[in-house]
Input
Amino acid sequence: MLMITVSGQAGSGTSTLVAGLCQAYGWDYLNGGMVFRSHAKARSMSLAEFSELCKQDLSVDRALDEELQMHMNKESGPEIVESRLAGWWAFKEKISCIRLWLEVSVDERVRRVIAREAGEHLQRKQEILAREQRDLSRFEELYGLNPSDPTPYTHVLDATALNQEEVLAVVQSYLEEAK
Output
């Protein structure tokens, strides 16, 4: 049964938070990227090829989102769903759960991505901003929404100045309050 959705921009710490929640509670999770990768593999396509297909054929992108929503609605589904639009889907489907958006400044997200993957600050920043713009354009075209619009979220956490343990503790307090 879905307990929490975790959403945020690239480098905001969603995957790190999900790992911490899974370890703390023994929960299962589903990551939108996992769904994407499994569909690419099923079509014998590289991630880049599948990404290009999604850009050219929006019905493929919609099918991925529909699959994510299906898993979110299963009583035996994961306790955590992580994706840019997971909070929106839970909101639209009226799923009673915590819908979290992790807000982190772009410079801090760049720093985190560089620490994880290396690279030069300006180049990484340009890549992150370009990806955000592409994603925003796609989400607006597909669904008329902006993932960072706070409307669907029960909690928006500014994690810019927090380390992973602090973020986990705050989110655990949200979960305790919701009991």
